């Protein structure tokens, strides 16, 4: 899900909306800038062979050596990466549980936390059992599925919401 859709789900829970919107957009700009700089650095370092690496930033991090003392920073990079993925998964999981509870009309969302957690775990292993299957999916038909899930489905939901809003007055 693009970050704007995630922010649109979280925005109603925020107390100071103008300040939060400003900091949210600044954070998004900072993350985008960091990704652009790191991607350009990796491309300048490896050139055409970048495509052959699964995780080129990890390989580029191996080349960092500061004063012959600070080396092997890939563990630091992995710690940042894992922390970021943990936060992202927690936010997605919370939104999934909250939206499912709203959709089912439940008064307490905590009732469906374990069943949805079990379903997410089972489906995550079932969909991509290993890295080779995931790489094959993204190289073949993944682009079509991603376009549908990240593009067409949100636009369809937006269209339905607009039609319901006009019909309701």
UniProtKB/TrEMBL annotation:
Family that this chain belongs to: Belongs to the amino acid-polyamine-organocation (APC) superfamily. Spore germination protein (SGP) (TC 2.A.3.9) family.
Organism: Paenibacillus elgii
Primary residence: membrane
Membrane protein topology class: Multi-pass membrane protein
One GO term of the biological process aspect: spore germination
Keyword check for Transmembrane helix: yes
Compartments in which it is found: Membrane
Top-level taxon: Bacteria
UniProt protein name: Uncharacterized protein
Entry's Gene Ontology cellular component terms: membrane
Keywords assigned by UniProt, alphabetized: Germination, Membrane, Transmembrane, Transmembrane helix, Transport
Annotated transmembrane regions: 25-46, 53-70, 76-99, 111-131, 143-163
């Amino acid at each position: 899900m693009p970050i704007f859709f995630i922010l649109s789900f979280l925005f109603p829970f925020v107390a100071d909306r103008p300040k939060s919107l400003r900091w949210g957009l600044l954070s998004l700009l900072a993350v985008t800038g960091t990704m652009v700089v790191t991607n350009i650095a990796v491309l300048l370092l490896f050139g055409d062979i970048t495509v052959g690496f699964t995780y080129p930033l990890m390989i580029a991090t191996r080349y960092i050596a500061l004063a012959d003392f600070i080396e092997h920073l890939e563990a630091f990079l992995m710690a940042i990466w894992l922390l970021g993925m943990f936060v992202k998964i927690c936010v997605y999981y919370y939104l999934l549980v909250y939206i499912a509870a709203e959709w089912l009309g439940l008064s307490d969302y905590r009732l469906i936390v374990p069943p949805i957690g079990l379903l997410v775990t089972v489906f995550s292993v079932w969909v991509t059992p290993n890295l080779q299957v995931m790489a094959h999916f993204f190289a073949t038909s993944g682009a079509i599925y991603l376009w549908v899930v990240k593009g067409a489905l949100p636009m369809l939901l937006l269209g339905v919401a607009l039609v319901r809003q006009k019909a309701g007055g």
